[in-house]
Amino acid sequence: MRLEFAIPALELSTAATFLLVFNNRMLHASQHIRELTERYKQSRDSKIVGQVRKMHRQVLLLRDIKIVTIISIILCVVTMLLMFNKQMANATIAFMISLIALGIALVLTVVELITATNTLNYALDKRMKSNYPFLNLRRLFKRPSFDEQLFKEEILN
Q: InterPro entries this protein is in (predicted)?
């Protein structure tokens, strides 16, 4: 396969869009943490601490995704500069590393999605139990490998 300018340019636009999306997600998650912190200051509800911990993990994952995506963008630019200088072997290596970085960002995205879903389930579970004690969301969404006791211990630590 021959490396042409359109290929790294396409990856560059994809990675830039990816970065924009996750910047927006990080801003929303950070705002939600601030709101939870304010609610905790007012109510001293220990349930909020567990939710903040889960949100903090999500923000750290979003940060890592953004860092890896930025590395991918930088390597795309390096690839195009090397192509301008007719250093195709080095450009190919830089482009391959850029693709690997984007792949890592995608894997981290799956992990972040799982973390965000767990955070949402935790928040919904607490709200639904307090408003509707007859509705047990854990029972509805329970996975066979889910250990409730381990989950409770993890939140308390």
A: DUF2721
- Retrieve residue 72's tokens: 């991918």
**Contact in structure between 95 and 75 (CB atoms under 8 Å):** yes
Q: Whats the size of the chain, residue-wise?
A: 157
Digit-coded pLDDT (tens) for 103-155: 999 999 988 888 888 777 766 665 555 554 444 445 544 544 545 555 556 55
pTM, entire model? 0.69
Q: The tokens of 77 are what? A: 């630019």
Give residue limits of the domains in the chain: 6-156
Q: Using the 8-state DSSP alphabet, how is residue 144 labeled?
A: T
Q: How far is CA 27 from CA 34, 39, 59, 83, 112, in A?
A: 11, 19, 9, 36, 15
